[in-house]
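User: ok so my PI wants both of these folded by tonight, can you help

Assistant: No problem, let's get them done. Here's the first:
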Amino acid sequence: MRGLPQKKNARIADKMELFGHLRRYEKIRKDKERDIYNLK
């Protein structure tokens, strides 16, 4: 039972990392959209 919480924490860490990547991607996409809008 000792390894169970560690696995859970690792899974949460993976989710947080993935979420961070998604947030970063969203931010980059918004910046690009703004640049495109400014170029028009």
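One down. Here's the second:
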Amino acid sequence: MSTTLDLLLEAAYGAQSPPYRAFDEFEGIQVAWNQVKLSDFLQSPEELERLYCEIHLLKTLKHNNIMKFYTSWVDTGNRNIIFVTEMFTSGILRQYRLKLKRVNIRAVKHWCRQILRGLLYLHSHDPLVIHRDLNCDNIFDNGKQEEVKIGELGLTAILKNSHAAHCVSMFDLLKSMESDFTITY
């Protein structure tokens, strides 16, 4: 995606360092501009290689319920990695639910179906992708489109020949959502 990005100083949302809103003039869409200091998490060449592998993996993930990852590059001068992702108008699901006093059970079911479709895609992917940190802080919401997407895949486990991993069950996710929402039936 060769484009000029107008970086605005408005932080958007996110569980780690917040992204900035940017505008992709080539595509004509708002995007999220994320910057991460390489020194914050890279202590060895192996960790750098793992980072590059994860970025490559993120670029291959294409699903309606997975955050779109557009491009990335390394800013060697400032020792940052920059990556550009899809922008979400309502931010994270936790922020969105704070705006709501009550949530109808049908809406929660709709969100859960979308999350499950995203998880099915990740778990069917080759190599298998397990999120490992699925919660309301890394599920993103496009409120007007009634769409949620799984994001914050930086902590994923990439498993080539093993199905064993530490992961959060859907039951655990629903329990965390229940404590976040007042659900009406």
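Residues 126 and 160 are 8 Å apart (CA to CA). The mean pLDDT is 76. Good luck tonight!
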